[in-house]
Write a structure and sequence with these properties.
Layout lengths: L1 H22 L1 H8 L3 H29 L1 H21 L6 H29 L5 H26 L6 H4 L1 H15 L14 H23 L5 H22 L15 H29 L6 H6 L2 H21 L2 H18 L8 H27 L7 H28 L4 H9 L8 H29 L9
Helix pairs in contact: 1-5, 1-6, 1-8, 3-4, 3-5, 3-9, 3-16, 4-5, 4-8, 5-6, 5-16, 6-13, 6-15, 9-10, 9-16, 11-15, 11-16, 11-18, 13-15, 14-15, 14-18, 16-18
């Protein structure tokens, strides 16, 4: 339970930050005279850096110790948060982007170790419960983040970052005092520098290409082509090197275990669908429904609250009955919810949208804990940092890819001014009915595409063995 208390603080810190930041975007843009592109990078750079760095830091933690990296993660995240807040006093938006990179490096250290430490600490038959409770903390942060953002907004957007500092200091001290290193720590300190370099170059190139593709700016297509080529070459080189390395940064041989492979692939597809649904719902609430950013954030609670309730329950059930049925049922509920959301429009009652969001939240809660449990139980202790990092990397990659699919569909019928009004939750009433109609059509197409992808994930989940684990 000591490990769980530490990881719970880390999960709360990271998720509160993300959802609270969405609420203060209009004030942040105005006070820093920030362009729309810069503002998007403030949001996306954190996700991009954590996606790229988590598997690398997972390998580092396997080598040098989870406690060391986790405590350092708290400290770096706290420093990054303080710098992000300070950037509001006379600096431009790109300073904030740079400080968000520091914050993301700290977050990567936390994310790379949380599931691995829980897996180390909880005995067989209790792992699902431990991961479920940790998932509750993440869901709670997502739910209360908009409320905290709304409370802090009158004092200045900088306080969304400053509020992390005392929590981060407490987390650093608490983790340093309470955590213990597992006895099995790897003593071989050989690091795969070539494979790591190829991975960093490859994934950075691919994610940058998809990020600019999601903006839908034809003037940026040259950047998309160049970074795509660099990314593909880098990832191909990474696979070539890793399969021949004695000490790989990310052990691709783990994917030979069906539980591990199926669990990670369904996690990727679910991240693709859930990540897209969150952004699409924000556009729906702030566009056709005309809500401001705070109200739209609060309207996301029906999807986050069921995860808090169902997560620990599904973890217990997976410990008792195995993960296959729960993960498949959770993905099926997500598919049903996405298919239903494909038919919402301007006149759809909000209670009906909320019901669909509850179904999606229940599905997410049923899926997450058993999926994490099956993936982490399928690898030996000395590879749990790698496994945890790879799982988070794949889920975040799915989220970033979802933006590249969703944004062009949703925003194709909007001019830049209308897009900014809707995205920031201010002035949606000034958008023409024709533009709103085009936005709704784009939402329908996007939800249909992601419902199909989610249905594929159900079929993949059924390939998983029953209760057998490695």
């Amino acid at each position: 339970m000591t490990v769980l208390s530490v990881t719970t603080v880390g999960a709360l810190l990271a998720t509160i930050q993300g959802s609270a930041l969405l609420i203060v975007l209009p004030e942040m843009m105005a006070s820093m005279n920030m362009s729309f592109m810069t503002m998007l990078w403030v949001l996306l750079i954190y996700l991009m850096v954590t996606t790229i760095m988590v598997p690398v830091l997972g390998r580092v933690s396997d080598m040098f110790g989870r406690k060391k990296i986790y405590v350092l993660g708290f400290a770096v995240f706290t420093l990054g948060s303080m710098l992000c807040g300070i950037s509001g006093f006379g600096m431009n938006g790109w300073y904030l982007v740079g400080f968000r990179i520091i914050q993301a490096l700290g977050g990567s250290m936390l994310l790379a170790n949380s599931m691995a430490m829980i897996t180390d600490a909880f005995r067989k038959g209790k792992l699902g419960f431990g991961l479920g409770v940790n998932g509750v903390a993440a869901s709670a942060g997502f739910v209360i983040g908009p409320v905290i953002g709304g409370i802090l907004a009158p004092f200045g957007w900088e306080w969304v970052f400053f509020v992390n500092v005392p929590i981060g200091i407490f987390g650093t001290v608490w983790a340093a005092h309470r955590l213990r290193e597992p006895k099995w720590e790897v003593k071989e300190h050989k690091f795969d520098w070539i494979g790591t370099a190829a991975f960093l170059v490859g994934l950075t190139g691919v994610l940058t290409a998809f990020t600019y593709m999601s903006f839908g700016d034809p003037n940026m297509m040259t950047v998309v082509y160049i970074t795509s080529i660099i990314g593909v070459i880098g990832l191909a080189s990474f696979i070539f090197v890793e399969l021949r390395s004695e000490h790989p940064m990310m052990d691709l041989r783990l994917f030979r275990e069906r539980n591990y492979a199926v669990g990670n692939f369904t996690n990727l597809l679910n991240g693709l669908c859930i990540g897209a649904a969150t952004f699409l719902l924000i556009f729906y609430f702030q566009g056709p429904c005309g809500m401001d950013a705070l109200t739209a954030g609060i309207m996301l609670i029906p999807s986050g609250l069921p995860m808090m309730i169902v997560g620990p329950l599904s973890g217990r059930w997976s410990d008792k009955y195995g993960p296959k049925l729960l993960t498949s049922a959770g993905l099926a509920l997500t598919t049903v919810a996405l298919a239903g959301l494909a038919f919402v429009d301007v006149g759809t009652p909000l209670w009906m949208v909320s019901v669909l969001m509850v179904i999606m939240g229940v599905g997410g809660g049923m899926f997450m804990s058993p999926n994490a449990s099956s993936v982490m139980a399928a690898v030996p202790p000395g590879r749990r940092g790698i496994a945890s990092g790879a799982r988070i990397m794949l889920r975040n990659t799915g989220t970033m890819f979802s933006l590249a699919i969703a944004f062009p569909l949703v925003l194709s019928g909007l001019n830049p001014e209308d897009m900014m009004r809707i995205f920031l939750g201010k002035g949606a009433e000034l958008v023409s009915p024709e533009a709103i109609s085009a936005l709704v059509d784009g939402l329908h197409e996007a939800f249909i595409i992601f419902a199909i992808i989610s249905a594929v994930s159900v079929a993949v989940a059924l390939l998983k063995p029953g209760r057998k684990t490695a």
